[in-house]
Write a structure and sequence with these properties.
globular; 9-stranded mixed sheet; alpha/beta; 27% strand; 444 residues; 11 helices; 4-stranded mixed sheet
Length: 444
């Protein structure tokens, strides 16, 4: 296969096969090729294509139009700079401004640039190459296999590596990708049936919400894989999934490793799960000083505008260990990272935006562990001298400048921020017990 991610070669090899399914409509690969050529013509006539080595900025809503634009960029071998649709105008501007001074071109085989890992400042532009996507698709197929009539549901944003890799896996295998509406328990369960889904990928919070809405839920018989990743699933949720006889495959990975590099073996999907799974066939994972490190063809070469990562072992910053069966158990995902409902919340990014307010002098963002959400975003606020902001003032500012999942759900206005023995911000969840946190609602 000379070009696995070309929609035109897919159309030549499987013209009548369904490549995309959306809201009850099927698009064959030959139809998608026509739509893709139209998109290329539109981009060229509008002069929208970037110079060599620069990316095309793409706002990643899960629509047929967005996916066709991605097919076009993959066919043209032009990198896509993916912006999450939940970004506010402020967040979008700050991210794009962070790229303005980059002069070096992207590597020739770059497929996408995804923002990630902002625990030391702004999210960094991680380079995702075509070779990474190919290696990831190969590893996934070696474990899950492909069957006649397979349909992989996409119910997460295509701007995240988990979503983008679903698109490229289906394209490479000439299989069906089903776009589902924004997640709700009702729409998810409905789409599994109506779209005849055989593989789906969700985060633990999504599964918990399905069980809350449908306590006795059983998945359709045709669903052969339910990938659970994005954050570590709790034992209680995994036990419930086992009792419901769900085909659970837990995973571990990140943007820098092009999605999962650890998975439950396919043949064990109906067993009671514990941990994140075993290392895939074309990767190596080791624990050094308690931290997880990865060596694989899925590793990113680095971040755009920053020195190349020359060490073959990528330091994830995550803490974990292997048990006697070779199953990886992840204990902490990047020291300060908050995982809330499967979304990555980077404390420093939120703090930097909060302190743009004229009445906020300092802010400390901490994740409070929660059974349903994984963690709740909490903020300790020090007001500027001479100002007296109310919780409502802070709520309004957050709503206007932060994506909903980044907005603090609990806030306390304090005299000073807690620090540790080294006079650094103390981000331990236990420090929240010292303050009178007020719950904030953003729906109105």
């Amino acid at each position: 296969m000379s070009e696995p991610f070309s929609i035109f070669e897919a159309a030549a090899e499987a013209p009548q096969a369904v490549g995309l399914r959306c809201q009850g409509r099927d698009y064959s690969f030959s139809q998608l090729a026509v739509l893709t050529q139209n998109a290329i013509n539109r981009m060229e006539s509008a002069g929208a294509l970037p110079a060599t080595g620069l990316p095309y900025i793409l706002e990643g809503t899960n629509t047929v139009e967005t996916l066709v634009d991605l097919y076009a960029l993959l066919a043209l071998r032009i990198p896509a700079l993916m912006l999450h649709p939940k970004l506010t105008a402020t967040e979008r501007r700050v991210l794009l401004e962070s790229l303005q001074n980059i002069r070096e071109p992207l590597p020739e085989n770059t497929a996408a640039v995804l923002f990630t890992s902002g625990t030391t400042g702004l999210p960094k532009p991680a380079i995702i190459t075509r070779d990474m996507l190919l290696a990831s698709a190969t590893a996934s197929a070696q474990n899950l296999g492909w069957e006649e009539g397979d349909c992989w549901q996409l119910c997460m944003s295509v701007t995240r590596i988990g979503g983008l890799s679903i698109l490229t896996r289906c394209l490479m295998a000439r299989k069906t990708l089903a776009i589902s509406p924004l997640f709700s328990p009702e729409s998810f369960v409905k789409a599994l049936d109506e779209d005849r889904v055989t593989i789906t990928s969700i985060v633990p919070t999504m599964l918990a919400k399905v069980f809350e809405t449908y306590p006795d839920w059983r998945c359709p018989p045709r669903l052969r894989v339910l990938l659970l990743g994005g954050s570590s699933a709790g034992d209680k949720l995994l036990a419930r999934a086992y009792r419901a006889h769900l085909p659970i495959i837990t995973t571990y990975g990140m943007t820098e490793t092009c999605s999962h590099i650890v998975m439950t073996p396919y043949e064990e999907r109906f067993e009671r799960q514990s941990g994140s799974g075993k290392v895939v066939s074309n990767a190596r994972v080791r624990i050094r000083n308690g931290q997880i490190e990865v060596c694989s063809a899925m590793n990113t070469p680095g971040y755009w505008g920053r020195p190349r990562l020359l060490d073959p072992w990528f330091e994830t910053g995550d803490l974990g260990e292997f048990d006697s069966d070779g199953v990886l158990h992840v204990y902490a995902r990047r020291q300060d990272l908050i995982l809330s409902a499967g979304e990555n919340v980077y404390p420093l990014e939120v703090e930097n935006l909060l302190t743009r307010s004229p009445f906020i002098k300092e802010a400390l963002v901490i994740g409070e562990p929660d059974e349903t959400w994984g963690a709740i975003v909490c903020a300790l606020i020090v007001a500027e001298a001479g100002t007296h902001p109310s919780i409502e003032d802070i709520r309004r500012f957050c709503k206007e400048n932060l994506s909903a999942y980044k907005c603090p759900r609990k806030i306390a206005i304090v005299q000073s921020l807690p620090v540790n023995a080294a006079d650094k911000p103390d981000r331990r969840p236990q420090v929240l017990e010292r303050f009178d946190l007020q719950t904030v609602h953003y729906k109105h």
